[in-house]
Design brief:
1007 residues; 19 strands; alpha+beta; 4-stranded mixed β-sheet; 7-stranded mixed β-sheet; 24 helices
Length: 1007
């Protein structure tokens, strides 16, 4: 049982007090601060009480206990009532009972000394009563520290609708908080784990509707003094009014509308300027798309023809299969009939042998063998004669002529070998020249592609080095120009353009580096292998004053112009005066007399007698020029060169075909001579001897046949059947030959079909099929047929040539459009420098211009032009009128709020007759504040209280006043309020003015 310790004050309540609201009946603390081990009770009985004591006796400790019951610990400034510094005490120090600090002499640090250790618990309890409602509410909190390292104690929050006591309700539960919680809940005590539900619970029970009332309580309960009552009332009882913010809002609206209207006008002009530019860009992109589509169709043409060829070859193979099947049947029928006839022939031959025709059979055998020998010799003789004719040699009719031809054949073989070697060497030389032409064509094509994407004449390799440098260092290409990009020969001096190129080429391909980028660029160039020669100049940020040119008017630099919009222009002008001071002389006589001179043909006379003329290229070859900021002339020159290179390629191809044909003829003649040389015996072609032998054998056979009639009949039959066998053999041979020819055609069709299918199996074939309909349309338009494989090959060549010609025309049109687009972009960048600051005057920047146009169209600001004009005329006036009305509304609310505060002051049982009164105000007052006005208690608050509208501003005025022209009342927060006392103060000692910063929206209720 906790021993009760009676408080120092009488706890009996005043029975005569008729006070409204909940009042503190009794405060109890246990283990709170220095109130240790006993229950300390402070009884007020709902009345006013005076708590006195020496410094450090615990007065502020009890005030902090009351504050802790109503406010979360994080918002409480503990020990503020004692005037202590922030952070001197905390909830943890109250629970542990810190009462002094000890200094460690070794470390020099201080450590607080506590009355209690972790494991004990603390209780604060407040009992509040409302006699008018006969209601009692007890608020309590229990604290404990389970761990000495915890920064904040654990807590339970308690609300009960009856009077509780520490000794009666919080004793005998040991250290088990769960048991205490369970016991309290059984006793109809509402236990909360956190402050928000606890606060909501007791505020509902005690009729405290606003948390701001508790904040006001917190501010007042621990105050030792009030420095300014006006400031206190302003800060805690009245709402703020920030007229300056409203005025700034009106001004910002006006400025925003004005800016927006100007933006509308600017947006309309930008859209008008961008529309034709983007139409040209769309045309350029359309040409690019057509070129790209033509490239894709050219790439797909091979697969398109392969598909057509595959279908045709497959049909040809199928037809050959059907023909082979039919011919196979014909061959079998002929073969069976031939075997039948031969069997019959053998039976008759045996029968004739029985009649004594053995010699006759032998003669027939010899005749047949000799006939076969004759046929073979005659065939070889015809082949030999054909080969002699092909070799352009005379025919042979006897052994002597045959021997002569062998010698001629040997000599011809030696000549053919020499011709073959010469032709092969010529073809190899031609192949090297063709490769060089092809490389030249590829270089020209790459240069043309590069030139179409830019306006510079600088060689592609130097531009690639700069692009790589700019990309890795994050510098724009335009910040590192080549000198030649900023220099060109004047239009009226084009006769000297070749001479200027000869003299300034080395300087023109030099990179210009600004001073602020010199270190980064130098480091990068030093650390990288460039793969080419690069010269660069450091251009200083500040240049010394230039002297006026002293050279003659014929000096070359006077015929040049420097791009004026470049920051490098002054430096370049000085360099040209030094590098191009040569006199442009029309005659060699003038050349010899001049100190520094140059001719239109490119002969240069330099210092100390040095002369130079570099004719490695023609002086009028614009394809090698590097000066100028437009490259159309260079593109045209390269196109002319490309045409000449293509012509040379065609001539070389024609020459190659001629040499190839000669080489093939030599190879064919060599093969013919080899076959002739292989035939060394004249007997192989002496078929007349075999004819004579056959004649002799036939005569003998006829003599034997005349000796027997039966033998004659058998001989006749054998002759007939021999004719039938010959005829049937010829039919079988013919069918076999046709079968072989068709079989060869089938194999050829199958091979061609396999080749076409191999092409169609390539990875790119799938994507190429999307272009087949377009190629089909081109085929129809060109009136080309693909009925055979040969027609397909011809159609492929024709379509490829047509698409190449179309691409060439589109590329020229693209180049013209690129120049037009660049000029329009340059004009737009000059007019709208802010919007186009990150855009270049090149076709590559078209997406940026298109994005800007899309943004303008999406914003559609021109559509709101009339609406913004109306806003400028009406909305600002409407906002000023609304501001004036709001001033009046807030003045009324201030009066009502002060009236509510006065009602609450009248209900306090001390200092009777005290109230707050808003002072009179006048429209012309600069301060616009409510000053003090001492009035007797019976006079009451003065009438009025409305804030007048700002002086000198008609709500219908169309001009928006700036803050500097507004009255003081509109530029400051609303003014002070008067606190009345009885009796009034002496006029020599005016009362203080109060200002409010905390708004309260609860009308008619005192806080």
């Amino acid at each position: 049982m906790i021993p009760a310790q009676p408080g120092p004050a009488d706890t009996s309540a005043s029975t005569d007090l008729a006070a409204a609201g909940f009042r503190l009946e009794r405060l109890e603390v246990y283990n709170w601060g220095t109130f240790d081990k006993h229950v300390w009770s402070f009884g007020l009985g709902g009345a006013n009480a005076l708590l006195t004591g020496d410094i450090g006796s615990g007065k502020s400790t009890l005030v902090d206990a009351i504050t802790t019951l109503f406010m979360p610990a994080r918002k409480i400034a503990y020990n503020k009532a004692a005037g202590a510094e922030s952070g001197e005490r905390s909830l943890r120090s109250y629970v542990l009972g810190h009462y002094k600090s000890e200094r460690n002499e070794t470390t020099g640090t201080t450590k607080p000394v506590a009355l209690r250790k972790p494991g004990s618990y603390s209780v604060i309890l407040g009992v509040f009563t409302n006699p008018a409602l006969a209601a009692t509410v007890t608020l309590g909190q229990v604290f404990w520290l389970a761990d000495g390292n915890a920064t904040s104690p654990e807590r339970l929050f308690l609300v009960a609708d009856r009077a509780l006591s520490v000794a009666g309700d919080f004793a005998d539960f040991g250290t088990e908080v769960r048991a205490l919680k369970k016991r309290l809940e059984v006793g109809d005590v509402r236990v909360h784990k956190t402050f928000p539900p606890y606060s909501k619970d007791f505020r509902r029970r005690m009729g405290i509707e606003s948390e701001q009332a508790l904040e006001l309580f917190h501010q007042t309960v621990s105050m030792k003094s009030v420095g300014s009552l006006d400031e206190f009332v302003r800060s805690h009882m009245l709402e703020p009014f920030d007229a300056a913010a409203m005025t700034d809002n009106i001004v910002s609206h006006f400025d925003a509308l004005t800016t927006t209207y100007n933006s509308v006008q600017r947006a309309r002009a930008q859209v008008d300027a961008l529309t034709p530019l983007l139409e040209d860009c769309d045309a350029y992109d359309g040409l690019a798309a057509r070129i790209e589509e033509a490239d894709a169709q050219q790439a797909a043409l091979r697969y398109f023809i392969a598909q057509r060829t595959s279908v045709l070859r497959e049909a040809q193979r199928a037809e050959a299969e059907r023909m082979l099947a039919r011919l196979e049947g014909e061959k079998k029928t002929a073969k069976d009939e031939l075997e039948r006839l031969r069997d019959q022939e053998r039976r008759w031959e045996l029968q004739r042998e029985g009649l004594g025709g053995g010699r006759l059979g032998e003669l027939e055998r010899q005749i047949e063998e000799t006939e076969q020998q004759r046929a073979a010799q005659e065939k070889r003789a015809r082949q030999h004669a054909t080969l002699l004719e092909q070799a352009e040699l005379a025919p042979v009719t006897d052994q002597a002529q045959f021997t002569d031809r062998l010698e001629e054949i040997a000599r011809a073989q030696h000549d053919v070998a020499a011709t073959t070697q010469e032709t092969r060497t010529a073809l190899e030389t031609l192949a090297v020249e063709a490769a060089q032409l092809n490389q030249r064509a590829e270089d020209l094509n790459a240069d043309l592609i590069s030139l179409r994407s830019r306006r510079s004449n600088i060689p592609r390799k130097q531009l690639e080095v700069r692009a790589r440098l700019s990309r890795e260092l994050g510098i724009e290409d335009s910040a590192l120009p080549f000198a030649g990009e900023l220099i060109q020969v004047r239009d009226e001096e084009q006769a000297w353009v070749g001479a200027a190129e000869r003299l300034l080429r080395g300087f023109a391909v030099s990179l210009l580096v600004p001073g602020d980028q010199y270190a980064r660029v130098s480091d990068w160039i030093n650390d990288h292998h460039l793969g080419t020669k690069l010269v660069y100049f450091r251009v200083p940020d500040k240049l010394p004053p230039r002297r006026l040119p002293t050279g003659a008017s014929t000096a070359l630099f006077t015929k040049l112009e420097v791009r004026e919009d470049s920051p490098f222009a002054p430096w370049l002008a000085g360099e040209l005066e030094r590098r191009a001071s040569h006199a442009c002389v029309p005659t060699m006589e003038d050349f010899r007399h001049a100190e520094l001179a140059i001719t239109a043909q490119g002969l240069i006379k330099g210092a100390r007698g040095r002369h130079e003329k570099n004719d490695t290229t023609r002086i009028d070859d614009r394809s090698t020029y590097v000066l100028g900021w437009t490259n159309q002339a260079k593109i045209d020159a390269l196109l002319d060169q490309a045409g000449r290179v293509h012509g040379a390629q065609r001539e070389m191809e024609k020459k190659k075909r001629g040499l190839g044909a000669a080489y093939e003829d030599a190879i064919s003649r060599d093969k013919v001579l080899d076959r002739l040389a292989a035939m060394l015996d004249y007997g192989e072609i002496d078929w007349p001897s075999a004819v004579r032998r056959i004649t002799e054998l036939t005569a003998e056979k006829q003599r034997l046949q005349a000796a027997s009639e039966d033998m004659d009949e058998l001989t006749r039959r054998l002759t007939e059947i021999a004719d039938q066998i010959t005829e049937q053999g010829a039919a079988y041979e013919k069918a076999s030959q046709r079968w072989g020819r068709v079989d060869g055609e089938r194999d050829a069709a199958e091979r061609a079909c396999d080749e076409a299918r191999a092409v169609l199996d390539e990875p790119a074939a799938g994507a190429a099929q999307a272009h087949f309909p377009a190629l089909e349309q081109r085929l129809t338009t060109a009136r080309l047929e693909c009925r055979t494989a040969q027609e397909c090959a011809q159609a492929e060549t024709r379509l490829r040539e047509e698409m190449t010609a179309h691409k060439y025309r589109w590329a020229k049109e693209q180049t013209r459009l690129a120049q037009t687009i660049a000029a329009q972009m340059s004009s737009f960048r000059t007019t709208y420098q802010v919007e186009a600051s990150e855009l270049d005057a090149s076709v590559a920047s078209a997406p940026g211009y298109r994005a800007l146009h899309q943004q303008l169209v999406a914003d559609d600001l021109p559509r709101f032009q009339d609406q913004f004009r109306t806003y400028l005329k009406t909305n600002v006036i409407r906002e000023i009128a609304g501001f004036h009305a709001q001033l009046n509304i807030w003045a009324d609310e201030i009066g009502e709020r002060i009236h509510t505060i006065n009602e609450s002051l009248a209900g306090i049982d001390y200092n009777p007759g005290r109230y707050i009164n808003p002072a009179d105000h006048h429209p012309g007052s600069a301060a616009r504040s409510h000053r003090l006005d001492d009035r007797p208690p019976h006079a009451g608050p003065p009438a009025g209280g409305r804030l007048a509208s700002p002086a000198g501003h008609d709500p219908l005025d169309r001009r928006l006043p700036r803050p500097s022209r507004l009255p003081a009342a509109a530029r400051r927060t609303w003014g002070g309020h008067q606190v009345h006392r009885t009796p009034p103060r002496h006029p020599d000692h005016p009362a203080r003015t109060v200002h409010s910063r905390r708004p309260h929206r609860h009308r008619g209720r005192a806080h």
